[in-house]
């Protein structure tokens, strides 16, 4: 009987500890993903976060008129695109479990909302480097830090022909 009570007690302790760990994980996923700085924002993203989606959310929530950003960190998955000027589209290539040695881009606006333009360089565990225009990016094990510098002048992007490219517009700027 004592042995059974000890087993039940151990199982209860394991369940309580597991529940606390799950609660901590849930609360950390609801933790703020960015904070305001003197020059803009610092964003710290965690495993599984969609970097582009989080930057778009920040731009909307904070009504960022225009910003540039840089970042570093681990990517669970990054898809680069090389623009085919004849086909007028990106040819994608995806890499998994890489480190973003460099991430740089800008936030502007178009008729649909925030418009991001992002480039980067990723390295694998053999120190091979891959880079170019980023089509999608998700954080891997660890974290990714993104430093966003805001600007008061709102800038827009518009599709320009003949390339069918989304180009940053400087009109109406001083």
UniProtKB/TrEMBL annotation:
| Domain spans labelled PPC | 35-173
Q: Which InterPro entries match?
A: PPC_dom (IPR005175)
Q: Which Pfam families match?
A: PCC (PF03479)
Q: SUPFAM superfamilies under this entry?
A: AF0104/ALDC/Ptd012-like
Database matches in CDD domains: DUF296
Q: Which residues form the signal peptide?
A: none
Name the PANTHER family on file: DNA-BINDING PROTEIN, PROTEIN, PUTATIVE-RELATED
What is the protein name given in its UniProt record?
PPC domain-containing protein
List the source organism: Chryseobacterium vrystaatense
